[in-house]
Amino acid sequence: MEFCIFTEPQQGASYDDQLAQAAATERLGFDGWFRSDHFLAMGRTDPLPGPTDAWTTLAGLARDTRRIRLGTLVSSATFRHPSILAIQVAQVDAMSDGRVELGLGTGWFAEEHEVYGIPFPPKRFDLLEEQLEVVTGLWSTPDGERFDFAGEHYTLVDAPPLPKPVQSRVPVIIGGAGPKRTPALAARFATEFNIGFRSEDVVAETFDGVRRACEQIGRDPGTLRTSVALPTVVATDAADYLRRLAAIDADADTFAEVNIAGTPDAAVEKLLRLLDLGADRVYLQLVDLRDLDHLELIAAEVLPHLR
Q1: CB-CB contact of 143 with 164 (8 Å)
Q2: 3-class SS at 136?
Q3: How confident is the model at residue 176 (pLDDT cuts 50, 70, 90)?
């Protein structure tokens, strides 16, 4: 099992804040650092100094880190034209010497789109499907050839499929708990299927569904990585636990029902159950990214029991 840090910079974090967490992520032996792709803070929080763009941030981290995987969980199909996204991701992949992963989804935060004037169509799965076709099509078209695409949302004519990523195939992450279209898209396009913020029963059921979707199109389910993303709060005493919950405005009465929560031993037990369910990778969502002591604790008291 791989362990990645996942954070939400729109809640209030500068590039330097993100760099500090990513650098600690690398130093402490985690496998990757991933961030959300949002521009508007959610809930009761101080959003200062303001939003940062996901792919601009990852370009900086590509040069400021050396080992960890870097990516989005997940970029919204409504934010960028897919041909531009393909160029951006390929460039950041080159800047990182082949460490980038692209998480891509339909987008869901309607208010964010409204305040920034970004179109938010009510039906977005067709948009996502065409984005996946364009991005992966550009990357897979041989050098010297051209890529054409004619869809309902995007049309490309004689497009040069450049630049190419460093990786022969940039990992593509698709996630969600939908029973039909999401597993079908993952089976066709993804290297990883992710489910977040759900109970273990739902995780197990959803993993089974995406494996069936692979089998239906003749794909070996073993070629698709499965992962889970969960908010994480770990502490060695009650006072620190409650302080960390308060810092992310989490409900102390319900947080542990689904999430990775409590003592290091409790976190290990939860992660072992996810491993038994078939998770190849877990994203530990640490919203308070300035709490680097939290990272230190997880690295010292949780990871050694799982490797």
Answers
A1: yes
A2: helix
A3: confident
Could you tell me the residue range of the domain that residue 103 belongs to?
2-119+170-305
Query: Rounded to two decimals, what is the model's pTM?
Result: 0.97
| Token representation of residue 248 | 């992310």
CB 162 within 8 A of CB 94: no
| Upper half-sphere CA count for residue 12 (Cβ side, 13 Å) | 11
What does the block give as tokens for 78?
């409504």
Residue 29's identity, in one-letter code, is G
Query: What H or E segment, with its residue span, contains residue 174?
Result: strand 172-175
- pLDDT, tens digit, for every residue of 177-212? 888 899 999 999 999 999 999 999 999 999 999 999
Count structural domains, the chain.
1
Q: CA 17 to CA 148: how far, in whole Å?
A: 41
The pLDDT tens digits of the residues spanning 13-39 come to: 999 999 999 999 999 999 999 999 999
For position 52, which CATH number holds? 3.20.20.30
Residue 132 forms part of a structural domain? no
